[in-house]
C-alpha cells in the first residue's frame, strides 16, 4: 500500500488544486492565503450536507473516530461531485504526529483515495518530519508566517465572537472580519510587514470596537473538547451559530493554546522519561518563542481595554497541575480540564464539552475531570455532548438548551 499511493510532486504545485478540510474557517483562510502567495492553489471545503456524512460512512469503518469520517467524507463528496478534475486535484490533511487515531488517519484517506481516485495525491501538513519525499514543502519563512497567521486568526476569532452576539446592525461583525482577512492576506504576501503586530493588533481591535453593540450582557458559554469537533462547524453542527441564536455569547479558546500544548508536551515527555534529543530541544525553543508572542497579544488586548484576551498559557499549565499530570498528553490531554477551569475561574461558568463519541482519551480527561472541577467551582455548569453519525442534531441541541435553562435560572 505504501508504494502504491499517488505522491504530490513539485510539478503539481503549478497544475493541481489542493482541497483543504474545514476546521477553523477564520484561521484556515489566512493559512491558505500564505500558501497561495507561494504558488499553491488551495480551496477550503465548506460543504456540510448529509452527503458528507454518508460518504464518510461508505468509506470509513463505523468505529473510526468522527473527525476522520467527516474529513474523508468531505473529500470524497467533493471528488465525486464533478466540481473538480481528479487529474488536477490533491487533498491536504494536518497531522500532529501524536498517538491518537486522528493523527494517523492519513493512511485511511490514502487507502480511500487510491480505491476511488488513484491519481489523487494526499498531502500531509505537519511539522514533525512525517513526510520525507513530498513535493509539498514548508520553508522556515513560511513556518514563521503560518505562526503569525495563527496569532492573527486567534485575535480575529476572539473579537468576532465578542462582537457578533451584541451587534446592533446584523452582519457588521462579519463585514469587519472579511475586511481584515483580505488585509492580512495582502500583508502576508508583501515582505515582513505582517510582523508589525503592535500596529495591526491595535487597528483590528479599534475596528471591531467601532461596531455598535448592545450593552445587555448575555450568558457566556465556553466550548472545549477534541480539537476538530470543538472548532469545526461541520463537526459540531454549527454550535457557535446555535448558541448565538439562543441569546448566548460563545467563548472559544485560541488555537495557539493547542499549538503550545503540542510543543510543551514533547519537552514534558523528555523531562518525565529523562531523555533529551533534537525534538525536545526544538520544541523547547519553539514553545518559548510562541509563548512570548501570546504574551504580547494578551498585553496589547489588556492595554486596549475593550475585549477579553485569551488565557495565558502558563496559567493554564498551573491550573492543569491541580487536577491532572501534564504527562497526560494523549488527544487533548490535560489541556481540556485546564481550559474548563480557566473558563469557570474567569466567569464563563457554562461549558459545552464537544467530543467525538469514540474518543476515549478525551472522554477520560473531559467527562472524567468534570467532577473534580465542579468540586472546586460549584457554580460550573458543564455538559458533555457526543458527536457521531448516529447522534441527532435535535438531541444535541436539546441537551444544550437544558444546560442553558439552568444557566438562565442562575
CATH hierarchy: architecture of the domain at 217-253 and 311-409: 3-Layer(aba) Sandwich
SSE run: HEHEHHEHHEHHHEHHEHHHHEHEH
- For the residues shown, what is the average pLDDT? 91
Please give the share of residues in helix. 40-55%
Total DSSP helices: 17
Shape: globular
Q: Unreliable segments (pLDDT under 50, ≥5 consecutive)? A: none
Q: Give the CATH class of the domain at 217-253 and 311-409.
A: Alpha Beta
Please report the total strand number as a whole number.
Answer: 8
Query: What is the CA-atom radius of gyration, in angstroms?
Result: 21 Å
What's the arrangement of secondary structure elements?
Layout: H1 12-15, E1 17-20, H2 25-37, E2 41-44, H3 50-59, H4 66-80, E3 89-94, H5 101-104, H6 106-116, E4 122-125, H7 140-163, H8 172-188, H9 197-209, E5 219-225, H10 227-231, H11 239-245, E6 248-251, H12 255-272, H13 278-304, H14 313-323, H15 335-345, E7 350-356, H16 360-376, E8 381-387, H17 393-409
Parallel strand pairs: 1-2, 1-3, 3-4, 5-6, 5-7, 7-8
Helix pairs in contact: 2-7, 2-8, 3-4, 7-8, 7-9, 9-13, 12-13, 14-15, 15-16
Commentary on this structure:
The protein has 410 residues and is α/β, with parallel strands linked by helices. α3 (50-59) crosses α4 (66-80), α7 (140-163) runs antiparallel to α8 and α15 (335-345) runs parallel beside α16 (360-376). The protein has helices at residues 12-15, 25-37, 50-59, 66-80, 101-104, 106-116, 140-163, 172-188, 197-209, 227-231, 239-245, 255-272, 278-304, 313-323, 335-345, 360-376, 393-409, and strands at 17-20, 41-44, 89-94, 122-125, 219-225, 248-251, 350-356, 381-387. The model has no long low-confidence stretch (mean pLDDT 91).
